[in-house]
Amino acid sequence: MTTLAIRGGTVLTASGAHAVDLVVRDDLVDAWCAPGTAPDTDEVIDATGLHVAPGFVDVHTHLETVVAGVSTADDFASGTRAAAYGGTTTVVDFVRQGPGEDLLERLGDAGERARGRCATDYGFHQIVGDVRDTSLAQFPRLVADGVPSVKLFMAFPGDLYSDDTQLLRAMRRAAELGITVMVHAENGLAMEFLRERARERGDVSLPWHARTAPPAIEGEATRRAILLAELAGMPTLYFVHVSAAEALDAIADARRRGLPVFAETCPHYLYLDVAELDRPWEEGANFVCAPPVRTREHRDRLWWALAANDLSVVSSDHCPFCRSTLFPPERRDFSRLPGGIAGIEYRVPLLYDAALRGRLPLARFVDVTATSSARLFGLHPEKGSLVPGSHADITLLDPRGVTRTGASDHHMNVDHSVFEGLGLRGSVHAVLLRGQRLVQEGRWVGPTDHGRFVPRRLGTDLYDRRSVPGGADSDADAAVGVDVDVEADGSAVMRVDPA
Ligand code: MN
Q1: Which of 41, 157, 188, 350 reaches 20 to 30 Å from 334, CA-CA?
Q2: In what order do the strands lie in the sheet with 3-7?
Q3: E strands within 99-228?
């Protein structure tokens, strides 16, 4: 048994800042002590002047996966190491089921590849890119295997796309089992229509990436996903990478009606402007992601929504590519580019800087980058918390430090930084995973393969299912709390069963 005290720091939690000393016993947080009263321990970390935060939790990453025929640049080893340099100690990565592929085979394969190669702890979400009977029949195994969340795509027809019938079927099955449904909400058919026209005109330069995916494309899909979820018995919904005010409006409306609807945004939507796509191809190509980065008005709305809790989480959506050299000049067409931003290492520093500048409270910073992420996805209180008994995943932050955001400063396996030259306030001082130090003042000092698979519990502790309109019977019966009658003219009328 080894014991460790972290003395003199300010412990940050989702509820505030606390002047306490922490005692760690082996891999768990053991106790909080009034300053100076911690018992003698094997080791002491002097945290004077530092913030002591729960290890951060990134619930949206794409490591070692293939997008548009190109593999992401970070594998499980390099991606989780970069995550830890950036203060993150747990990632939840997406396992991709493409058309015709077997769900559980893909999950098993990801588990094999990740095992023994991760620097941080990790879990999985399952992308369901082929909603059919066999996939749906495998949903209970996802729950049993600690992967109780699926992601459905309303974009990318011909690939991961689900039509409304498939969305309804998958949502219905998820509602019955208590599985959380994550949604990529962009109207893929409308977007493809706009892109076809653009290609016909020869409008294949980078700015057309955003012009062919306007905010309404995201707003419509978000609203439709909520409607379909209600018809399907209202599983917990989680909208990934929200970028547009129109989508926020739909989410806020649903939350005001008491529905279990949650959402995240990502650092690139909070910090980057659509004008980045006006850069020359070699630079601008690195800013292509789906949905596209947007204008100042949308960014302001995202910050407000974070403060107001209409957005619960900030995830990286880390999906790294070295894209600038991917296509020769004659084949440079925005619609052929694999989309995605490298941000796993910068997510925490960017949001910490925002907190230090007063853009969001320190407690809210911890909430959206660690605690709510863990609570929404069945990882709390082991992760995202420093209460006694939780994993001793601890990130020490230095509010007087400085973080450089250039390509030569980071550890992600990409040749560029979309956040180049921001000059962030604050820095990651040290990172512990289950009591073991990984990073100390910018140097790697621990094992690189200490990360373990973390099975996640079903459901979310941010929402009580008994609050779902008509959901008093909870779990399986919640799925029939809403009845749909089809009228003679074919229109659907929704009836909420008061029982
Ligand atoms: Mn993603």
Answers
A1: 350
A2: 28-33, 21-25, 3-7, 43-46
A3: 121-128, 149-153, 180-184
- What's the pLDDT tens digit per position in 40-53? 999 999 999 999 99
Q: Is residue 235 part of a domain?
A: yes
What separation in Å is there between the alpha carbon of 319 and the centre of ligand 1? 7
Q: What confidence tens digit (pLDDT) does each residue in 346-358 have?
A: 999 999 999 999 9
| pTM of structure | 0.93
- Report CA(247)–ligand 1 centroid distance (Å): 17
Residues near ion ligand 1 (CB < 5 Å) are 317
- List 57's β-bridge partners, or say none: 90
Report whether 239 contacts 218 (CB < 8 A).
no
Q: How far is the CA of 474 from the centre of ligand 1 (A)?
A: 30
More confident residue, 469 or 317: 317
Residue 276 lies in a domain: yes
- In a domain, residue 103? The reply is yes
Assess whether pLDDT exceeds 90 at residue 430.
yes
Q: What is the CATH number of the domain that holds 271?
A: 3.20.20.140
The structural domain count of the chain equals 1
Peptide bond into 381 cis (omega under 30): yes
Residue 227, SS3 per DSSP: helix
